[in-house]
């Protein structure tokens, strides 16, 4: 079966803990690395279903680049609107990631449905 599902589960758990640390304003030495992991992993995993046609390494690079773009657009938008906060940034990146992932699922479901 392999270790891929185990690594995926650990990654999801680490991202959720990082988001919880930021949103609940909890203090921990692991807060910074886990929040950073969430900010890179959540948009990257959300973009992954859109890039199924690429080989593995091209997909990793594209998802990582896309995650950085999402983070930078959220940060720039919040700074331009004078509403910057750590909690708001994490919430906005999480919300955008969920929307991107759900749009990929909806697209896949629409193409599978019998006509």
Automatic annotation (TrEMBL):
Answer whether the UniProt record assigns the keyword Membrane to this protein: yes
Please list every transmembrane segment annotated in the UniProt record, as residue ranges.
32-51, 58-78, 84-106
Q: Which UniProt keywords apply?
A: Membrane, Transmembrane, Transmembrane helix
Can you say what this protein is called? Uncharacterized protein
Organism from which the protein derives: Streptomyces alboflavus
């Amino acid at each position: 079966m392999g270790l891929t599902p185990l690594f995926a589960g650990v990654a999801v758990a680490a991202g959720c803990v990082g988001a919880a640390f930021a949103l609940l304003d909890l203090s921990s030495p692991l807060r910074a690395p886990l929040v950073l992991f969430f900010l890179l992993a959540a948009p990257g995993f959300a973009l992954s279903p859109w890039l199924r046609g690429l080989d593995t390494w091209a997909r990793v690079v594209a998802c990582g680049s896309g995650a950085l773009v999402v983070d930078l657009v959220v940060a720039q938008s919040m700074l331009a609107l004078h509403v910057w906060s750590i909690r708001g940034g994490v919430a906005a990146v999480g919300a955008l990631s969920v929307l991107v992932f759900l749009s990929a699922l909806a697209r896949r479901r629409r193409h599978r449905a019998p006509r």
